[in-house]
Amino acid sequence: MKEISNLMNYRDSVKVVDATLRDGGLVNDFFFDDRFVHDLYLANIKAGVDYMEFGYKADKEMFDREKFGKWKFCDEEDLRAVVGENDTDLKIAVMADVGRCNYKQDILNRDESVIDLIRVATYLNQIPTAVDMIEDAKRKGYEVSCNIMAISTAQEGDLRAALEILGQSPVDVIYIVDSFGAMYPEQLQRLAALYVEYAEKYGKRIGIHAHNNQQLAFANTIEAVGDGVDWLDATYSSMGRGAGNCAMELLLGFLKNPKYNVFPVIKFIDQHMNKLREQGVVWGYDLQYLMTGLLNQHPRTAIAFTKDGRKDYAEFYKEIVTMD
Asked: Which of 10, 67, 78, 232 has its CA 20 to 30 A from that of 260?
């Protein structure tokens, strides 16, 4: 049983990261209107959120710019149109996927950019390239985190090897990512202990990015807080790929640090998030996402089920339970 003070008190080292535009952009291909983005930026400032992730630095040769909104690419002029010089306490983040970005060309030197943090996303088999991206971003002057995705499918030996490699890299934060929403708090506790072991060895911070397939994204996130994880991802109204993420309104309501204020989040949801749902944008917990979470599978089949408007849940379960 963890110390109650770990949950009832607050640590200055805790950082809240808003991933609404990035993970939420996977729901609507990043087609957010300018007012939505500007008001989200202001809401994050008023709420005391530490970092706002605007989207991806996607490779423009690989992805058709006509098929995605501007936050798939996060060009400098688009960022500055929202934040100016960003003379605020809120820091700006973008994600760079291994194999899906031209990081040497599209990520500018820090002194030429309003971005503060580069979030490198990788699978275990891509760690060498991830390290090259981390080193490139650090040379350019950025804070850098590394999100190891699909961790619920990893073997402990492989994970330890990856953490050893990342520990020796210049990365600042290493993330636990429950990509499939398959983990339970008890599993998260054991995994956090493993990550913290390497964080203490190499002087790194640990983060958590949870998905809500089993309605445990918030539970797993607050479990992580009690286990010494400092960087916490959340999204407004839980908006994110498939079942979505840890809800910002839940997280800020839970954290005891007086610098955080949940009311601007509630106000933004009232003014913007509910309108997205009314416009037909679909995300959040549903039975098909529960099924892929239970089976520790990527939610792509559940996403297709949702887009096709299917309601034959039992048939869908039979289809995916026999998948290798």
From this structure: 78
